[in-house]
Write a structure and sequence with these properties.
Length: 405
């Protein structure tokens, strides 16, 4: 790793520097700001870019409650669509699964760019927080001592800047820089490759169902997830490494019809495809999620393939724990939250990873071409449809448990 040389410009000093303005970094920043803990938030992209980047859409109700308690979910609660059921389609039949009736909790459909927009507005415009967009070449120094620093290049002047701090929150996502500081002698990275690709699609088309639809089909998995009254996310299982250009408009829609159409279901509404990209489904976990004065949160610490729509929920869980721990540390010097941070996050991280792996086998088994995996997947689905206790366990994992405070 190349660490640029320190700048000669005078260093600024704040208790906390947060790197990355995604859901994790913005949540930490907002909570610190509300508690009058000074921080600087550094982001490589522009405000316009992060407010439009399409990604997640399903937020678990425990997370909505937690954001709401901190004054961060007013617009979300006003505008999001609550969802209480999902549907499995297999062998030409529909099976509704009423998870909210089993757990009391729902999903809220709220596109990630809207959440990011709300959080930026609250932090920068309402709470007057310091956020610097377009920064380049972010580097960390001294994270194993008690005077860490963050260096970056100012996009306007091209000058190298330095911020001295007590804690660095690494919230810069899967392609960020902070994770690289947890080198093999400082921690481990566990990886899992699902061996399947998903063609992730956004269509300018109203949803064709009132809930998430999992289409389990020998041709490959297909899914429908509403995003807004005008936009719907679809997924198609494809070979890993496939090229999105292989998927013309007509081929996409004919394959979605083949995998999702069953008798009695409303027809799929077609529309212009506004996003089309292949995701190779893989996951990783960094352990521990901290090194010295660096605390990772969200996708920088763990990527969970979007099979069960868990990534942003995990990012929010980390952020809430980290922010509370930082408020205590910066306020009274109590470092117990920071010391327990990694272990507390990793419990939920591994639960969600394991659940995603379990669900993956259920939805991908029948298209694997392997009759043993097909039979096992069918048994898995029958169990949650036929057994009340299996259904309750599935529902609890699918919607996520209340955050432990
Ligand atoms: P983010 O959102 O990636 O934000 C990181 C931010 O850091 C910036 N950055 C840097 N800033 C400064 N210096 C650097 N060196 C930097 N490098 C990067 C980036 O520009 C960015 O602004 O990470 P965060 O906050 O951890 O949030 C994680 C979520 O974004 C992610 O887990 C979800 O999008 C995953 N996910 C889903 N999660 C759900 O909970 N429910 C869903 O329905 C769901 N659907 C999805 C998804 C992810 C998808 N993709 C694209 C993989 C659907 C898709 C298609």
């Amino acid at each position: 790793m190349v660490i640029p040389s320190p700048t000669s410009a005078p260093a600024q000093r704040v208790p906390v520097v947060i790197i990355g303005a995604g859901p994790a970094g913005l949540t930490v920043a907002n909570i610190l700001r509300a508690a009058s803990v000074d921080c600087v938030l550094l982001e490589t992209e522009s405000r316009e870019f992060i407010e439009q980047r399409p990604r997640a859409g399903f937020i678990e109700e425990w997370a909505v409650r937690a954001l709401r308690q901190r004054g961060l979910a007013d617009r979300l609660v006003e505008r999001a669509q609550p969802h209480s059921e999902c549907e499995f389609r297999i062998d030409g039949e529909r099976h509704r699964f009423p998870y909210a009736a089993l757990t009391g909790d729902r999903h809220f459909t709220y596109p990630q760019p809207l959440l990011v927009t709300d959080l930026v507005r609250e932090y920068a415009d309402v709470r007057g927080g310091d956020i610097r967009f377009g920064v380049r070449d972010v580097a960390l120094q001294g994270i194993d001592g008690d005077r860490p620093a963050v260096l970056y290049t100012d996009p306007e002047t091209g000058e190298r800047r330095r911020i001295d701090c007590r804690i660095i929150a690494g919230c810069d996502g899967a392609r960020g820089v902070t994770r690289t500081y947890v080198t093999p002698d400082r921690g481990t990275v566990s990886r899992y490759d699902y061996g399947v690709g998903w063609l992730a699609l956004l269509a300018e088309a109203p949803p064709s169902s009132d809930c998430v639809v999992f289409g389990i089909h020998p041709r490959g998995f297909g899914a429908h997830m509403s995003r807004s009254p005008e936009v719907t996310r679809y997924y198609l299982e494809v070979p890993p490494g496939d090229d999105a250009e292989n998927w013309s408009h007509d081929r996409v829609w004919s394959e979605l019809h083949a995998r999702l159409t069953v008798a009695g279901a409303p027809p799929l509404t077609e529309g212009r495809l506004i996003e089309k990209r292949v995701l190779d489904m893989h996951s990783y976990v960094v352990e521990p999620m901290t090194y010295g004065r660096l605390f990772l949160a969200g996708d920088s610490a763990h990527l969970v393939a979007p099979i069960a729509a868990k990534g942003m929920n995990l990012a929010l869980h980390d952020a809430l724990l980290l922010a509370d721990a930082l408020v205590a540390y910066c306020g009274t010097g109590d470092d117990s939250g920071l010391r327990g941070y990694s272990a507390a996050c990793l419990r939920r991280v591994w639960e969600y990873q394991e659940f995603s792996q379990w669900l993956s086998e259920l939805i991908h088994g029948p298209s694997s071409g392997d009759p043993f995996r097909t039979g096992s997947a069918q048994a898995r689905l029958r169990r949650i449809l036929d057994s009340p206790s299996a259904a309750a366990a599935f529902a609890e994992s699918y919607i996520g448990k209340e955050a432990v405070r």
